[in-house]
Design goal:
The complex is a heterodimer. In chain A, the strands form two sheets. An eight-stranded mixed β-sheet of chain A has the order 6-7-8-3-9-10-12-11, with helices on both faces. In chain A, strands 2-1-4-5 form a four-stranded antiparallel β-sheet. Helix content of chain A is 30%, strand content 25%. By secondary structure, chain A is of the alpha/beta class. The chains are: A alpha/beta, B alpha/beta.
Chain lengths: 330, 330
């Protein structure tokens, strides 16, 4: 995980609003779910950027909008300095060869009626002119890379366990030699001992193939383990972004602090519930987020200004970005 | 302290088309009054099935409690008829399930469902029940309980539904609360709220709590005693300190190694357990962990180790625990 500081992906003021439709006849669009609301960040070549947040904070939508699986409402996504937002469909498809995705649910993301061989070679059918034999060899090579038996090509997904299916998903993502892989909660449906297997595999592949990851998850300790830098999302916005150690040792946003302290520590000597910052209540609806700072309904530090003015997302310490009125660089 | 619950060689299996699934394989342990017991293990290790067996909620057929005794306050629950059992369920032993969405009835108000329990077990009138239900919702931290009592489950958020479930479980002041992965479907900040709530109530009411989870972090901070389960067996049992600081079973060591710690050094590799848990239809004749164990020898393949007390209160089912101890002790 050597971070070379050249930017691979640059996300600028990205917004994705989903319309909420009311009525049968006229389908009036009355409101919008602001799933991603003005998000900006860079992903450097060869790094792993972790994206954490709770259910409904927009982390998966951010990942999908970067790939243009959803058309952004506004904003730019620069991939190697090419703006994806105004590329025509055919060129976008060519660009997709360089960015792939691994999905959360290994049961839903593999077609049960396709063999493992045809699942993994599907991206090759779209993006390459390889002969049948070349594809077959490539599939077997990929199966070996992800730690599966190459003789499995003719089997169907139901013959595999969750962890093995996730390996098939990884092999499919690797098929076209991408630069960037967006991992959308790749381990959250797996058991603990299997999670470690998949995380180790992802790390090995990154070292071997020089991949760049955007690793989306809600499991903070796992994200911290795999990431070089971490971004924390809340209600469609990034509230804090910094180096993995920086954000752990010096979290500046009260939400990051609460999130960190909520993670149970598997060590009875360190685990103490007394030091925990308990947040009140639930996440507000993204259809009607609170005015001002959107964390103000749950924030233990909120003052008058937080209810009036939205805090700027700014670089408070070197390479440490935060959006909070009360955050101070120590 | 006095024993509250005593399991003796409990064995539960399911008759399926593929053969007999041996879900729980002769487990024995004692739970004291007011004790917090953590039951940890991965999917399919029998942790939920063993709890459902205690509640006699296993569907027969295809299920079958093949052998064993479940002693609760001097009575063997397996000898009771359905009518007697119904008086224990909810009244003496209450259970909270993983998915609060499916365990509340969507067509009745939350209040109605709590009052129903009170009328049945406490012979309360509608009016008394309602007063008590409001107190209970208040106790579990539902704001504005007086109004909320007339809401339907869909008007509650996930965290609030789980609180309502806990209110219902506590309504008869049970002696034992079985919580089966109550926070798995919730976000970490909400999970922290629920854990905090249950422990506070446990301390106030002096009830015993059995917390079933796959998350070692949660049990580290709340449980006095921990049962680690694998393939339907308890493979290690002891205090939180025993399990986390003097780990004896290779599986427990593997599980702990699979977890990233929040303060680990960059570049630390996770120690994953190779392979998969055994097929419960076709259990190996020797140690169930044999195929994945790094300490295995021929003896383990042929003979199944039983759970033995090797230190004061610390039990393990492994032939080679004394060679492992120096590594497990940290």
């Amino acid at each position: 995980m050597n971070v070379v500081n050249s930017t691979l992906v640059s996300v600028r003021n990205l917004r994705k609003y989903f319309p909420v439709k009311r009525g049968i006849l006229f389908n009036r669009q009355t409101k919008f779910v602001k799933a991603v609301d003005d998000v900006s960040f860079d992903i450097y070549q060869g790094e792993t950027l972790g994206l954490v947040g709770e259910t409904g904070c927009g982390k998966s939508t951010t990942g999908r909008t970067i790939l243009h699986l959803y058309k952004p409402t506004s904003g730019e996504v620069l991939f190697n300095n090419v703006d994806l937002t105004d590329l025509p469909e055919t060129e976008l498809r060519n660009m997709r060869q360089r960015m792939q995705m691994i999905f959360q649910d290994p049961y839903a993301s593999l077609n049960p009626r396709m063999t493992v061989g045809s699942i993994i070679s599907a991206p090759l059918d779209v993006h390459t002119e390889d002969s049948r034999k070349e594809k077959r060899d490539r599939v077997q090579e990929l199966l070996k890379i992800v730690g599966l038996n190459p003789d499995f090509v003719n089997r169907y997904p139901h013959e595999f366990s969750g962890g093995q299916r996730q390996r098939i998903g990884i092999a499919r993502a690797l098929a076209v030699n991408p630069d960037l892989i967006i991992c959308d909660e790749p381990i959250s449906s797996l058991d603990v001992s299997i999670q470690a297997q998949v995380v180790n595999l992802l790390e090995e592949l990154q070292e071997k193939l020089g991949l760049t990851y955007l690793f989306i998850a809600h499991d903070l300790s796992m994200v911290r383990h795999i990431s070089d830098r971490m971004a924390v999302m809340y209600l469609g916005k990034i509230v804090e972004l910094a180096d993995r150690n920086e954000i752990y040792l010096r979290p500046l946003h009260p939400y990051t602090r609460a999130l960190m302290s909520a993670v149970p520590i598997p060590d009875p000597d360190k685990a103490s519930r007394t030091e925990r910052i308990l947040l009140k209540g639930d996440i507000p609806s993204p259809i009607n987020p609170p005015k001002g700072c959107n964390f103000n309904t749950r924030c233990p530090m909120a003052t008058d200004i937080c209810f009036i003015e939205e805090p700027d997302y700014r670089e408070l310490a070197p390479k440490h970005y935060v959006a909070c009125h009360h955050a101070k660089a120590s | 302290m006095e024993a509250l619950l005593k399991l003796n060689r409990l064995q539960t299996r399911f008759h399926t088309e593929d053969g007999i699934v041996q879900a729980v394989n002769g487990i024995s342990y004692t739970m004291k009054k007011g004790e917090v017991l953590g039951v940890v293990g991965e999917s399919g290790c029998g942790k939920s099935v063993h709890a459902l067996s205690i509640m006699r909620l296993i569907q027969i057929p295809p299920g079958e409690i093949a052998d064993g005794e479940i002693w609760f306050e001097g009575r063997n629950l397996l000898d009771l008829d359905e009518k007697e059992m119904r008086q224990i369920r909810g009244h003496d032993i209450a259970m909270v399930f993983q998915d609060p969405m499916t365990s509340l009835n969507p067509v009745y108000t939350v209040g109605f469902q709590i009052v129903e329990v009170l009328k049945l077990h406490k012979n309360m009138t509608e009016k008394e029940g309602k007063v008590r239900a409001i107190q209970l919702l208040d106790l579990v931290g539902i704001p504005d309980a007086k109004k909320r009592i007339d809401n339907y489950p869909h008007q509650f958020s996930g965290g609030m539904r789980q609180r309502a479930m806990i209110a219902m479980a506590l309504s008869c002041e049970p002696k034992l609360l079985i919580a089966d992965e109550p926070t798995t479907a919730l976000d970490v900040t909400i999970q922290a709220q629920i854990v905090d709530l249950v422990i506070k109530l446990q301390e106030e009411m002096g009830m015993a709590v059995m917390w079933i989870t796959h998350d070692l972090g949660i049990v580290a901070e709340m449980a006095q005693t921990i049962n680690v389960m694998y393939a339907g067996f308890i493979i290690e049992r002891g205090t939180a300190h025993d399990i986390f600081k003097r780990t004896l079973h290779p599986y427990t060591i593997g599980l702990l190694g699979s977890l990233p710690t929040i303060d680990e050094a960059p570049g630390t590799k996770l120690i994953s357990i190779p392979g998969l848990p055994p097929d419960l239809v076709d259990l190996p004749q020797g140690c169930p962990f044999y195929a994945r164990c790094v300490y295995r020898e021929d003896h383990c393949y042929l003979n199944r180790p039983s759970l033995e007390e090797v230190e004061d209160g610390h039990q393990v089912a492994c032939w080679r625990w004394d060679e492992i101890l120096p590594e497990g002790a940290k």
